[in-house]
Every structure is written in structure tokens, then in C-alpha cells.
Amino acid sequence: MATYSRLPGSVALITLHNPPVNALSAAVRQGIVDAVQRALKDPKVTSVVICGQNGKFCGGADIREFAGPMLGPPLVPMIHAIEAVDKPVAAAIEGVALGGGLELALACHYRIAHSKAVLGLPEVTLGLLPGAGGSQRLPRLIGLTAALDLITTGRHVSAAEALKLGVLDQVTDSNAVDLAVEFVRSVAGQPLDSRRLSTLPCPCPPDVDSLLDKVMSKVRQRSRGALAPVACVRALRAAASLPYAQGMEKERELMATLFNSGQARALQYAFFSQRVVGKWSLPSGARWDNSTARIISKAAVIGLGTMGRGIVVALALTGISVVAVETQEKQLAEASRVVPAMLQREAGRRRLATPPGVISFSSNLQDVSEVELVIEAVFEDMSLKLQVFKHLSSVCRPGTLLCSNTSGLDIDQLAAVTQSPGLVVGMHFFAPAHVMKLLEVVYGPRSSPEAVATAMQLGKRMGKVGVAVGNCPGFVGNRMLKPYLEQANFLLEEGATPRQVDEALEEFGFPMGVFRMSDLSGLDVGWRIRKEAGLTGPGVESTRTRQGRRYSPLPDQMCEAGRLGQKTGKGWYQYDGPGGRVARSDPWVHIFLETYRAEHGLVARSITLEEILERCLYALINEGFNILQDAVAAGPEDIDAIYVFGYGWPRHRGGPMFHADQVGLGRILQRLNQHSHPDVPHLKPSTLLRRLVAAGSPPVQKWREFINKERVHSQL
Ligand SMILES: CC/C=C\CC(=O)SCCNC(=O)CCNC(=O)[C@H](O)C(C)(C)COP(=O)(O)OP(=O)(O)OC[C@H]1O[C@@H](n2cnc3c(N)ncnc32)[C@H](O)[C@@H]1OP(=O)(O)O
């Protein structure tokens, strides 16, 4: 709702009440409509201030209402009515003015904000555009060029930047509501025509068409199939070329198309998934709201390879003092040189004046004795990690949390060699660790709630999306990746080319197809893991069935030929040289594949894009169902957040489990059955998938409840 009060000196104060962010729900909109009417009718009122309760102006339209029928007064006429008021109206912006919240402020005649406020039109991130006049008013206020940037990226800006851009009239370090009240009193009675943004022309650069074309091609390239950024540019083209009323008509038309698109639903689901994963729970009953996190101020990182360096930077950026340990002198010297530069660069990118944390470098493990938390990031080798954990357990003071950045090794085994297994968890970062948003927090059967809570809290401080997951080989992300990679290799055996597979996946929306990705991360990573698993290496027979399952030796043979990817200048593609980035098809690979097929009596067939997507994605999704069934992930949102934030799954497709829901569980089951083969266990439909289909394919939002019920009745 919204409350109305009259302050001394003829100012009406309208306050939005809808915790936690004063979203514009039906009740709030109704409250605003009523309060504005009251202010208009009251002859003693000469000016109006709109603010939000509890230091938050407004977080925009109530996203939860998008799923249901439209109730209450619509936003657009409400906003028009505010602009039309013949008494000065000011928005007093504290906390946030986002989306519909900023659009409400743009309808006000003046905008005054607290210096800590954050403003923006993030609708594009929800698959929408600023559809309450924002796409037409903002460019009229700050010019087309700046509006294109804010609206197509959805980025949040500080009050200082908003003032510079001209979004705000004044910024204060003290109370924004008091200042706004004082301000509107001082302008009461002054003409308002020039303050109504809908009446102003849109300031455009002379080469407006070429600017719009350039931005359009940039968003198309960046958004890989997302509809909203393209619609945003179209709406801004209308603002630049049409009178306001016609521009609004275009905005309405574009919004209607977006609003009903599957992409908007997927992006809104992704918004809530990100929040759901923060409310973690463990099978033991420990949860985010009944477990206490420790506040870490001093940490250590062991191992300064690529991952370790990124983790050091991520920690230091939060203001934590870091002891960075590397026992190999050459690697230590290089890290001591490179890490401070990385830190400086990242601090600059985040607009921090100086990096807040202090880093000390050491080659001596003894130097971690005083820290509160250690993150081990040594080579992915179990015996080495066990040695490090044993050593840490004796060096660190009692109560120190010991974390491993392993990408899939057994956390419980590591915990077992320490004196306090309850204080051991996995903190699986993604490269580059100071940039990538995902953090898998892996709990073993003995990990304490405090250890999980501390790792999750630390992730949040580092700006990560932390997802608590159970302990199993590969955890969630890499466990699901295995069948995906496997299918991609099988497709090559059957007649596809790396480019064909990659193009299908990139068209789906991945930033990189599986083979380009593999070239980037290095083919030797998987090779080492397969050797450790006894799947390849000296003495292993070169057959296409290993350990009782279909196996493709193709990637092993690539490694044996020295083709390790970008670092060697050759992998599934060829590059300009070692470290080259531009992938070109390589005739060598085509001959290699033909020779391989001939040797194994395989006849290449033509493979459709549909088959590529089905086999790669449905194999991955099927493993997702197995993971839910095994309670390694608490719900589909956890898996989807992992894939969106760590594995390049296109956000406008919500995540693999959301995608399964959109495609239809019955269809996924039917296609898995079709592609299934006795020696490819990954394609055998999961029991959970079968049970969901048998239960009438409930929507993804109901799966958590369904799984819990099935578990109670021991059906899973
Ligand atoms: C005609 C259409 C016109 C306009 C369209 C729109 O306005 S679309 C909405 C545009 N607004 C946004 O995109 C803002 C979304 N919210 C945020 O970015 C953040 O929540 C915010 C406001 C920066 C606060 O961040 P913080 O980290 O402090 O909190 P958190 O994100 O955990 O949110 C707290 C709870 O509030 C819920 N919530 C936030 N915004 C909205 C919203 N606009 N509608 C509904 N609910 C919202 C959020 O889900 C959290 O609730 P929880 O129960 O914990 O999930």
C-alpha cells in the first residue's frame, strides 16, 4: 500500500509500503493512485514528495505478479497521471530506484537522491523493456546515447553517476526525504512544463541511424538470441524518431510481445533461482537461517596456479588479508609479480579506488598458522591434496576452516585426514576465479553447518552466487558435463564435425560450443582425469567400449598427437599459434576423424542440428534428474543457477531443468528412450524423470515438493 500524510508547509508525503523493496504491487499502485488524487484535491497542498518506507524508494514492478492475471490499477496511466499533476512532485530516492521504481521517479518533476542510492532500468535482465514509459522518458532526459547504454545493459548506476548523467537533480549525504520536502516547498507555484519529460524532444547525436544500427548489431552479438535487448533498441529508435504518444504505442507493442515470451518467463525464473539458492538447506536440517557463519578477516590460499591466483584476488577485493602460499619458487616469483597487477586491474574494473585487502606471499606452509580459513588450490591430484590437508591440519590453529577448490574429488576423503572433519568443505571456484560468479560450496557428510554457512557467506562477500551441493564425483556442474561431453564425442564418431556440433550449441545460446570450450580449457585436463580413472593410458586396450560402457578414445588420441587446444595452437581447431584465440576448421582434424571412422568400421552419416542438441542437452538434463534424485542438489533452481552462472547456459533459457520443463518432460523422456543404448548408461532415463512424467509433468516450481514427497514414501 501507500500512505498519505500532510507535512507542515503544505507538502503532501506519499510513502510506498511493501517490504522488502517496496515493489509496485497492485496494492501499492492503488495506494499511489488514491494518494495522488488526495493531494490534487486538497487545496492546502502545494507540492508532493514520493518516497519509500525503510530507506528504499522502489525496486520496480512486483515480479511475482507477472505470473498471474493483472489486478489493480495499471502502471502506465498511474505514471502519466503523476506527470500531469499541476503541483510540483519530487521523488525522494533512498536505497533503490529500479525498473518501474525509476520510471515512477521519471514521471515526477524532480528527483533527489541519497548518495548511496542505486538507480537503473534492469528490465532487460528479466526479458522485458522499461514498459512504463521508461524507454521514452529516459532518452528525453539524458539523451539517446546514454539511455541506450543504461536500457540495453540494465546496469545499475550510483547516485553520483546518475547526477552526472542528468537523471537526478540533487544528491545528498543526509536525509533525502527532508531535502526533497524542503526543495518542493521552494519551487511551489513555478511552471512545470519543462519538467514533464514526455513533452521534451529526445536529444540525439547527428548520426542517429548509424548509432542505433551499431548498438543493434552489438546487442545481437552479445545477447545470442535474447529478444529483450533487441526490443529495447527498437523502443529507443521510436523515442528518437517519433512523437511521445507514438513512441509509447511502440513501447506497449514491444512489451506485449516480450511479456508473453518464454524468454521473459525464463529470465524471471533465473532471477528467483538466484535468490532461492541463497536459502540453502542440507539433508541434516541445517539451513541458511539456523546456522551461523563466521566472519573471516584473514585467509590463506595454497597453490598459486591460475585458480589460486584468481582466488587470492577475489578474497583481497573483499578486504580480507590473504597469505598466498606456493612451494615452487618459480611459480611463487611469477605469482608475486602477476597477482598485484590482476588485483589492481580488477579493482579498477569495479571502480574501487584502492584494492582493500593485503596480500603476503610465502613459500612456507607454516605461515598459514594464524589464518581463520584456508583454501587449497593445488594441482588436481588426490594424493597431493591429502598431503596438504594433513599438513594444514597440524599447522593451523584449532577451529580453522579448511576448504578445497577441487573440481570434483572426494571432500569426505580430504576431511578424513584432518583433526576436525566438520570444518572441511569444498569451495569450487570457476576460472577466472576473480571474475566468474559461480561458487559450488560442497558439503560432505561430516561438514558442520557452521562451515557451510561460512563458505556461503564468504562467497556472497566476494560477489559470488554460492550454491550448496552434496559430495559426489564432479559435484553438480562437472558431473552433468560428463554425459554432455561424451555425447559430443560420439557425434564426431558418427559423422559430425567439431564445427557442426559447436554451431548447434552456439545457436542454442552457449557462448562457446563444446569443442571450442575444450580447446580453451585444454584437452589434457580431461585426459589426466581419464588416465587416473584407468580409462586410458599405457596398458589400456584401444577399444570403443571401456569399463563396460561405450567410450570414445578420440580426445585421448588428440592429446597423444600433441593437440592440447589453444595453448599448443592446435586442438579441435587450428589457431594462429600457441595461445591463439581465433578458431579455424582444421583439415587435419577432418582427415583424423575419417581415418578413425575407417579404422573402427564406422560409416559417417548426416546428423541434424536437432539430434546434436537432443543428445548433448538431454544427456546433461538426465544427469540433472539423477542429481536431484540423489539429493546432491536441493532443487532444480540450484542446478539451473550453477549452469547459468558457471557453464554459460543461456540465461534467457533459464537453465537445463527449466528448459526440460519448457520442452516437456514427456518429450525429453521419449527422446532419451529413443537415443538410449544399453552401453550408454547416461541416456537411460532417470527414475525421477519417469516418476515426474507419470505424475503428469508438474511445473519446475513444484519439483522440490514432489521430490520430498517421493522421498518420504521411499519412491526415489
Ligand atoms: C510495465 C512493467 C514495468 C516495469 C517492469 C519492472 O519494474 S520489472 C522489475 C524491475 N526491478 C528489478 O529488476 C529489481 C529486482 N531486484 C533487485 O535487483 C534486488 O532485489 C534489489 C532491489 C537490488 C535488492 O537486492 P538485495 O540483495 O538487497 O535483496 P534480494 O535481491 O535478496 O531481494 C530481497 C527480496 O525482495 C524480492 N524482490 C526484489 N525485487 C523484487 C521485485 N521487483 N518484485 C518482487 N520481489 C522482489 C526478492 O525476491 C527477495 O525476496 P525473497 O523472498 O528473498 O526471494
From TrEMBL:
Pathway: Lipid metabolism; fatty acid beta-oxidation. Its EC number is 1.1.1.35, 4.2.1.17, 5.3.3.8. It is found in: Peroxisome. It catalyses: (3S)-hydroxyhexadecanoyl-CoA = (2E)-hexadecenoyl-CoA + H2O; (3E)-decenoyl-CoA = (2E)-decenoyl-CoA; a (3E)-enoyl-CoA = a 4-saturated (2E)-enoyl-CoA; a (3Z)-enoyl-CoA = a 4-saturated (2E)-enoyl-CoA. One of its GO terms (biological process) is fatty acid beta-oxidation. SUPFAM superfamilies: 6-phosphogluconate dehydrogenase C-terminal domain-like, ClpP/crotonase, NAD(P)-binding Rossmann-fold domains. Its main location: other. Pfam families: 3HCDH, 3HCDH_N, ECH_1. Residues 474-575, 612-706 form the 3-hydroxyacyl-CoA dehydrogenase C-terminal domain. One of its GO terms (cellular component) is peroxisome. Residues 298-471 form the 3-hydroxyacyl-CoA dehydrogenase NAD binding domain. Keywords: Fatty acid metabolism, Isomerase, Lipid metabolism, Lyase, Multifunctional enzyme, NAD, Oxidoreductase, Peroxisome. One of its GO terms (molecular function) is NAD+ binding. InterPro entries: 3-OHacyl-CoA_DH_CS, 3-OHacyl-CoA_DH_NAD-bd, 3HC_DH_C, 6-PGluconate_DH-like_C_sf, ClpP/crotonase-like_dom_sf, Enoyl-CoA_hydra/iso, NAD(P)-bd_dom_sf. Monomer. In the N-terminal section; belongs to the enoyl-CoA hydratase/isomerase family. In the C-terminal section; belongs to the 3-hydroxyacyl-CoA dehydrogenase family. This is Peroxisomal bifunctional enzyme.
